[in-house]
Amino acid sequence: MKKITLFAFLIFFTITHAQLKPKTSFGKMIQGNTESGVPIQRCHTTEYEELLRAQNPDMPSKKEFNDFITNRIQEELLKKGNLTNSIQNTSVVVTIPVVVHVIHNGDAYGTNENIHDLQVQSQITVLNQDFRRLLGTPGYNTNPVGADVEIEFCLAQRTPDNLPTNGINRVNLGVASYTPSSINANVKPQTQWDPNKYLNIWSVNIGGGHFRLCTVSQ
């Protein structure tokens, strides 16, 4: 049986104390309006997915992934006592526990790649605004295909060993920066929590500390 790979999205944390370079080791630059006048780097979902597929030829297709997610959502709805056979006919909101692995090399809390808890929490807020299409937030839109997908994210409250946690796992691996391939080969295997129970996200310096990239678990 193929191992399901969660490759749904990439999220960039707020970039502080660093300017974007004209070129990076991963992804492309696009022009945008910023106070400093430098280009904005967009999300790299497509490029990252292509990288993963090149490294893992047996990775499930998008359809297989969507079918997997649909089935898991249905399972959660059934657990909550909603016995409908159609997800579209229910208003039950599915809450996904999240663990954010903050990978650093010994920097003090809140500096460089050892980002502050507030940065992590702000990204969970943004995810919920986007996925719930909340009115009065940047996640709301008037596009005719825009929708509340009835999925929410919360930082995990228990570890895999059933100990209390705030959902932020800080790990000093003694490395200042990584490449996308080294993250998959080294960082994720050492730090991942059970992907069947948690949405794993990693905050990692890529390209000499210029970006804080969060990648979804495999």
Task: Give keywords.
218 residues, alpha/beta, two-stranded antiparallel ribbon, globular
Describe the sheet with the most strands: 6 strands, mixed
Tally the beta strands.
8
> Number of DSSP helices?
4
Order of helices and strands: EEEHHEHEEHEE
Q: Report the end-to-end length measured between terminal Cα atoms.
A: 15 Å
Radius of gyration: 18 Å
Helix percent reads 25-40%
Could you tell me the mean pLDDT?
75
| Range of strand content | 15-25%
Task: Give a short overview.
The protein has 4 helices and 8 strands. The chain has helices spanning 45-55, 62-79, 117-132, 180-191, and strands at residues 10-12, 29-30, 40-41, 94-104, 151-155, 168-172, 199-206, 211-216.
Structural overview:
It is a single chain. The protein is an alpha/beta fold and 218 residues long. The protein is 26% helix and 19% strand. The protein is built from 4 helices and 8 strands, in the order E-E-E-H-H-E-H-E-E-H-E-E. The protein has helices at 45-55, 62-79, 117-132, 180-191, and strands spanning 10-12, 29-30, 40-41, 94-104, 151-155, 168-172, 199-206, 211-216. Strands 1, 4, 5, 6, 7 and 8 form a 6-stranded mixed beta sheet that branches. Strands 2-3 form a two-stranded antiparallel sheet. Helix 3 (117-132) links the parallel strand 4 and strand 5 (151-155). It is globular, with a radius of gyration of 18 Å. The two termini are 15 Å apart. The model is unreliable at 1-36 (pLDDT under 50).
